[in-house]
Amino acid sequence: MTKIALVALVALSLPAAALVAPAGAQQGPLRTAAETSFSSATKIFVLEAASDDLLAIETGKLAVAADEGRIKVFARKMVADRTRMMKELEEIVNGKVAFSVPSSLDEVQAGRVDKLKGLTRAEFAKAYLSLQVSINQEAVARFERYRQDGDNAELKGLANRHLLQLREDGQMAQKLLDEK
User: Fold this and answer.
1) Residue-averaged pLDDT of the chain
2) Check: CATH 1.20.1260.10 for 3-18+39-178?
3) Where are the beta strands (DSSP E) in the chain?
4) Is the pLDDT confidence value at 139 over 70?
5) How far is CA 103 from CA 49, 52, 86, in A?
6) CB 55, CB 112: distance < 8 Å
7) How far apart are the C-alpha atoms of 39 and 23, rounded to whole Å?
8) What is the pTM of this model?
């Protein structure tokens, strides 16, 4: 999801968020501190992190089906790592604020996945690995920023816990790409 689209999505959701109670929340105008404590910057962090996870999971599934050897092993690891990270993100966010972690790819991401589907095996391997390098570099930068400047302790903890894994995944993708 582009940053402009994310900002617009957050901006458009804010007025509705004040009126709509999350599932299971007490009905009425009062909210608990946990339900209203996510800033716009935190919402953007959550949406971008989830979008990265979804893209890594979907492209990883393609790579598992399309490749053999080291790329397939790497793709399985990416799917497992990002699925685990996504579940942690959902546990922190869902039910606490009036928005949910995305559960499907946006149009831009779906287009990226579709482009991979139409490539030959050799083209796919390079494109997949390049995408994983990019996704992980962006995720590392995002998680480092949030760890430093974020305003939600649980999400800062998540960022801190997963930074090493994201760095290692990016380095492994780069190593595999360099071998192609």
Assistant:
1) 82
2) yes
3) none
4) yes
5) 12, 11, 9
6) yes
7) 20
8) 0.78
27 band by pLDDT with thresholds 50, 70 and 90: very low
Report the residue count for the chain.
180
DSSP-assigned letter for residue 26: P
Kindly report, residue by residue over 68-93, the tens digit of the pLDDT.
789 999 999 999 999 999 999 999 99
Q: Write out the DSSP string of 99-111.
A: S----S--HHHHH
The amino acid present at 156, given as its one-letter code, is: K
DSSP at 38: -
Mean pLDDT of 97-103: 81
Confidence at residue 32, expressed as pLDDT on a 0 to 100 scale: 44
Tokens of 53: 């996870």
- 30 pLDDT above the threshold of 80: no
